[in-house]
Design goal:
CATH class of the largest domain: Mainly Alpha
CATH architecture of the largest domain: Orthogonal Bundle
CATH topology of the largest domain: Clc chloride channel
Radius of gyration: 22 Å
Number of strands: 0
Distance between the termini: 12 Å
Number of helices: 19
CATH superfamily of the largest domain: Clc chloride channel
């Protein structure tokens, strides 16, 4: 078929250039994927809460409050249980075969969007349980894996072409992200900008629809409250814009260092007998340190909330800024599964809190929490290599962020440009398995996938003719 029939000279005119071969069956898959992903995300969050309450012996309230109130032996018991789960999960699931993806990014970039259904959901359950037990990783990995695995299975069932399967798998990951954090627009942008590397018009509608449906389903059990409850920070153009100019480069360099640390931790994951020793050693050390600094446990949500309200002293900020990256990379290097989004945001907020405190001594009069939000968004965007999704995610996570949009956009632009100029990958590509055999086995498919037209014109396929 002539490819020109699938394009439009005016890309915003509804027609073949926008819907580009999406059949009624494809849209039915989008609806099913959104509903199933939302339900799975809800179930995973309920499992997370159950594990947290049982492990640390509290009935309700934020995880950080429960951890701070827990007696010391519970820290060791919970984290030794986490080590046992990691070791047992590795034995049961086994090491991935050369062509089998274990991460969403690995599936999209190296395996044509293929993910095994049952083992991926099992890895998601292991991730959510270990985070609930105190592993310093993010909880979003589980619903992302679940949504992507369901999308891959549905695509195989319907024998979709590779480009549609990749779109659905990315949309499933974005939908899982959106459902667990109540960020439908951010989840769609995450799927497009971070995972697919394009915000082309033909891809926007399926990603948006999947995220919105999954989020609406998750509302039934998770509610609609924002993830972070912040005060309304006023815009102080002088202090905040100049802060963005000054702090942006520092944040960009720090994001590069963080991504490289993630990459190094991934490469240093132990093999053979080390897989059984490393989790025990790392989690025992984390339990010991957490007696003094319980903020290190879990994904860091409570830390972001507290620092965005200006709740930490300068000394504690510095200590946590040094320890949180170490805790997260140690857990990652020991083989603990989990996400990188919330730990990355936590580190960015801690860094921005330190910089904001110093800046307030130079040019005061502005709440330090506003600097934490500005710098946290910039660090997140630079580490994800996703400036649009980083800003939108901060907007949806707080729902009280519009007044700080201009300084945040400035800081995001500066930090992201620096990270790209230094050639840093994202925190997701940094986690690709450094297995030469696995990579070479998939290099031909990756080369073909990476040539996907990003101009907004979806390639025609004979199976998708109306």
């Amino acid at each position: 078929m002539d490819g020109r029939r699938w394009s439009s000279y005016q890309p915003n005119v509804p027609g073949r250039g926008i819907v580009a071969g999406y059949t009624a069956r494809f849209w039915a898959l989008v609806v099913v994927l959104g509903v199933v992903t939302g339900a799975l995300a809800s179930g995973l969050v309920e499992l997370l809460r159950l594990v947290e309450h049982v492990a640390y012996g509290y009935q309700g309230g934020p995880f950080l409050d429960g951890v701070q109130a827990a007696v010391g032996w519970r820290h060791f018991a919970a984290l030794m249980a986490a080590a046992a789960v990691v070791i047992t999960g590795g034995l049961v699931l086994g090491r991935p075969r050369g062509s089998e993806a274990t991460e969403v990014s690995e599936s999209l970039w190296l395996s044509e969007g293929k993910l095994p259904l049952l083992s991926s959901i099992a890895r998601g359950v292991i991730a959510i349980v270990t985070v609930g037990l105190g592993s310093s990783m993010g909880r979003e990995s589980a619903p992302q894996l679940a949504g992507s695995a369901v999308a891959s299975w549905l695509s195989e069932l319907e024998q979709l072409p590779v480009w549609q399967r990749r779109l659905l798998v990315a949309s499933g990951a974005g939908a899982g992200f959106a459902a667990i954090y109540d960020v439908p627009l951010g989840g769609a942008l995450f799927a497009l900008e971070v995972l697919l590397g394009t915000v082309a018009l033909p891809f926007v509608l399926p990603a948006l629809a999947t995220s919105v449906i999954a989020t609406a389903v998750a509302w039934i059990t998770l509610g609609t409250k924002p993830t972070y409850d912040l005060p309304h920070y006023l815009l102080h153009p002088g202090q905040q814009l100049v802060f963005a100019l000054v702090a942006g480069p520092i944040i960009g360099f720090a994001a590069v260092g963080w991504v490289r640390a993630v990459k190094l931790a991934t490469r240093l994951r132990p093999k053979r007998w080390g897989r059984f020793v490393a989790p025990v050693v790392v989690f025992a050390a984390l339990a010991a340190v957490s007696l003094q600094y319980p903020e290190l446990l879990g994904n860091g949500k409570g830390v972001v909330q507290a620092e965005a309200l200006g709740g930490y002293s300068f000394g504690l900020l510095v200590v946590l800024l040094a320890l949180k990256p170490l805790a997260t990379t140690a857990c990652l290097g020991a083989g603990s599964p989990g996400g990188m989004f919330t730990p990355t945001l936590t580190i960015g907020v801690l860094l921005a809190g330190v910089l904001g405190t110093v800046w307030n001594h130079i040019w005061g009069g502005v709440p330090i929490g506003s600097y934490a939000v500005i710098g946290g968004g910039a660090f997140l965007a630079a580490a994800m290599q996703g400036p649009l999704s980083g800003v939108v995610l901060m907007l949806e996570l707080t729902r009280n962020f519009d007044s700080l949009m201009a300084p945040t956009l400035l800081a995001v632009a500066i930090a992201t440009v620096i990270s790209r100029r230094l050639g840093a990958p994202s925190i997701y590509s940094a986690r690709l398995r450094p297995d030469p055999d696995a990579l070479s086995a998939r290099s031909a498919g990756a080369a073909a996938i990476n040539t996907l037209d990003r101009s907004g014109v979806v390639p025609p396929d004979d199976d998708d003719q109306p």
